[in-house]
Write a structure and sequence with these properties.
There is one protein chain. By secondary structure, the protein is α+β, with helices and mostly antiparallel strands. It is globular. The relative contact order is 0.09. Strands 3, 4, 6, 7, 8, 10, 11, 12, 13, 14, 15, 16, 17 and 18 form a 14-stranded mixed β-sheet that branches. Strands 1-2 form a two-stranded parallel ribbon.
Length: 472
């Protein structure tokens, strides 16, 4: 989800919340003036400022509930490990992950400010903090009970932090209001003390981002986030492991920007006699999506590489029926069809007929001068000698630098210690047979191709792979 998507959703929720609040305000006003004042001769006055704040608070609650509970997808997940989302954000270092964390904090800042403005009890800090934490816990429980998303400890922690920051703004605003009214107030020190959480959280984020900026290589998703308990795991080694120290090459690829992806799409569509429909271009964190003017062609471009996914809806249909696949094409015929789209195939790639008109070119760490080629190219070919779609995930990796690597035995010791990432969807390993190991590569968060040890494992009687970062 892009920032414009988030702003659009926020605007939509705000409009809906304001509309519901306006209706409730009219109902309340009618009850207050017609029933309480006229019918029951009530004498208590409703302050205009309090009424406005109350409406703002109600609108805010509706927006928060809509944002957290209005996107129910029927699934239920529990994540109790504190700071697990921060570890995920660090290792992936995706804009999306960090943005969600920061938004979860900012979402509860208004609550920390509005609570003490409306309720005297919440002018005590711990009362405001408790109310914020309680409201966050209530939202998480509703998500859990009604299968509306993830019950996550980090959401409660982030919401609590937002409440604390918001309360700090209330204390500072209260002090400034007293100065504006020219009343003596010697509580400046306390007002500033309540800004400490904001300063601490801001400093923590700055330190994390600066540390990431100054480190040479990026982070790997395969790096372990927390130790896996291996206490009761029956583990057996059924492979020879080297204890020889060595070095391995790190590669890097080109990371295209938005302007470059637009140029790639323009050149590609021009080769097809068409052009980019500028009204339908979409840019996401890792991908740009383009469509042709005649709506026949679409092109998805990943920034890393860059790599492409192409679809030609006209090539697969004759206007009425789907054009049959050609299932017996040879390599030369497929290469010729790809070349008409401006796509070349390396001579050392491996060709495979997957059946049903689907063909595959594979390159596994093929060295050619200063570059290593890795990845796959899949395509769908029809009897009209046209390719209706291809998915080109081949990347030319340029040599960057050699780094010392762990031995295979040292990587195996990390598995024994539980220092690996376990993606078994909550299932803990009971038994492991290590059947082999190879040196593979993984794209890191800065566009480098880092070496990793990939262990072939029979885990809980199922085939599995464990990746261990190889660099020391």
């Amino acid at each position: 989800m892009t920032m414009s998507d988030i702003m659009g959703m926020a605007g939509y929720l705000l409009k809906r919340g304001a509309a519901v609040t306006a209706v409730l305000a009219i109902v309340f006003a009618a009850g207050y003036f017609l029933v309480y004042k006229l019918l029951f001769k009530g004498r208590k006055r409703l302050r205009l400022g309090t009424a406005v704040l109350g409406m703002v608070f109600l609108c805010y609650l509706l927006v928060v509930c809509g944002a957290t509970l209005g996107r129910g997808n029927g699934w239920q997940t529990v994540m109790l490990g504190p700071f697990s989302s921060y570890r995920d954000a660090w290792y992936s270092f995706s804009e999306y992950a960090w943005r969600n964390l920061i938004l979860n904090i900012l979402m509860f800042v208004p609550l920390g400010f509005l609570l003490p403005c409306l309720f005297r009890t919440c002018r005590r800090p711990w009362a405001a903090y408790g109310a914020g934490a309680g409201f966050s816990l209530l939202l998480e429980l509703i998500q859990l009970i009604f299968h509306l998303g993830v019950f996550e400890t980090d959401d409660i922690l982030n919401n609590f932090a937002g409440t604390v920051i918001g309360y700090g703004f209330y204390r500072l605003g209260s002090y400034l209001l007293q100065l504006f009214r020219r009343r003596k107030d010697r509580r400046l020190g306390r007002a500033l003390l309540f800004q400490a959480p904001l300063c601490a959280i801001t400093a923590a984020f700055c330190i994390v981002f600066l540390a990431y900026h100054f480190q040479e290589l990026g982070n790997l998703r395969s790096a372990y986030h927390g130790s896996v308990s291996m206490k009761n795991v029956d583990i057996r080694l059924d492979a020879e492991l080297s204890e020889e120290e060595g070095r391995a090459q790190v590669f890097r690829c080109r990371i295209a920007d938005k302007g470059e992806t637009l140029q790639i799409a323009s050149d590609f569509f021009a080769g097809l006699g068409d052009r980019v429909d500028m009204s339908r271009e979409d840019y996401y964190e890792n991908t740009a999506i383009f469509f042709s003017d005649d709506n026949f062609y679409s092109l998805w471009i990943e920034y890393a590489g860059p790599t492409m996914e192409y679809n030609n809806h006209d090539a697969a249909w004759d206007g009425v029926e789907r054009i049959p696949m050609k299932e017996d094409a040879d390599r030369e015929e497929i290469e010729e069809a790809l070349s008409e789209l401006g796509v070349s195939v390396h001579k050392d790639s491996v060709f495979e007929n997957l059946g049903e008109g689907k063909y595959l070119f594979t390159m596994e760490q093929v060295m050619d001068g200063e570059y290593m080629y890795d990845g796959t190219l899949r395509c769908v070919y029809h009897v009209n000698h046209q390719i209706s779609e291809f998915n080109d995930r081949r990347i030319a990796w340029e040599k960057y630098k050699e780094f010392p690597v762990k031995t295979e035995r040292e990587a195996y010791e990390e598995i024994l210690a539980g220092r690996f990432r376990c993606d078994m969807e909550g299932e803990n390993p009971d038994s492991m047979v290590i059947r082999g190991v190879r040196l593979g590569y993984e794209l890191d968060s800065k566009g480098f191709y880092q070496p990793i040890y990939v262990f072939d494992v029979l885990c809980n009687q199922a085939d599995w792979e464990i990746a261990v970062p190889a660099l020391r």
